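Onboarding guide, step 5: your first structure request.
Type a short instruction followed by the sequence, for example:

Predict the 3D structure of this protein.
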Amino acid sequence: MTATLLPPATARAHRDPNVLRWLGAYTASTLGDSVYYLALSWAAVQAGTPTQAGLVMSASAVPRALLMLGGGVIADRLGPRRVVIGSDAVRCGAVLAVAALLFLTSPGLWPLALLAMVFGAVDAVFLPAVGALPARITGTDQLARVQGMRGLAIRCAGVVGAPLGGLGVALGGAPAAFALAGALIAVSLPLLVSVRVRDLPRDGTPRSALSDLRAGLRYVRRHKVLGPLMVTIALGDLGFVGPLNVGLTLLADRRGWGASGMGWVLAGFGAGAGAAPLLLAVRGRLPRAGLVMGCAIITGSLAIGTLAHLPALPAAVGTAVLVGLLTGLSGAMCGALLQTLADPAYLGRVTSVSSLVSLGLTPLSMPLAAAAADAWGTGPVYVVSAAVCGLGGVVALAVPGLRRAELPG
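The system replies with structure tokens like these:
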């Protein structure tokens, strides 16, 4: 598939039809993902035991982690637009095939596990390509706004996807929910085909995929800002994911808040996290983005540590809003800095490293957080998690190039 050359952008991202087509495609695909995960969990629970359902839900993690770095090489070699279109087409076909199979028969868990593994393998190339695409559809001065718009799409999909998936299950069971997910992903395909991209010059030197992978890892390691930024992302996610996922459930139970109280805390976090990309999309330019990011991470870590010591639910909800705002802002700026600081020719591989650091390491924090909370209580776990998260902010402030990094706009 031949890419269409993109002339220099003259409009701001939120007024650029090319960016808006990309945003519509990304939103539809992400919304389809949200519906798919709900449909998969529902179908797995109905077809097997809770343990078997958990294994099905986690089946995508292994191929995604193992293939992620290779996916970055593919995105850079073939071009992110082509890879994103191909990935969405495979995901759409796989989901619709399982929907048809479940409609016609009751095959058990094996097609669900196979679908999860296919999704994980496709994600390994999809995620790096998605990260590399914005730099080819707009100018450098609009990348921060595009990252903010992307964050809004993710939040929108998270809020709308679950009710949509639940509606699909209520109307026609898991087959209807899978069909809905496939239809939403299918919507993204014509929009992606219509997106114009900027081709990058090639030096013409033939290289193997392994050489490209080594070159990408070497590029990240030697870069004065991207290397420390990866450390910041890893520490920030390690200190945040455990308390939010496992720790909050235990905290709500021990405080007597119940499921509704936990829902209010999560809603507060979601409200704050949703406001963060909106601010970035509106503001765009940020002269001292690295400094702001480091301060946001450190302040957010203090709020995380405070959350476990608040007995009143309203105070916990207010603190969760602050945590969501600060972590959402720092996360959006991490993504925007990756976009603006990395050479576009390496963006697929750079994104694959950041995705592997985040998706590969953060799941480890959940069983560790659960075991530690069971042994010592939730308070110490939140304090340790806050310290790990805050250490990421310290790294951001300690590295001069990262501290002085800017987001043009």
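Each response can be followed by summary notes, for example: Residues 144 and 336 are 5 Å apart (CA to CA).
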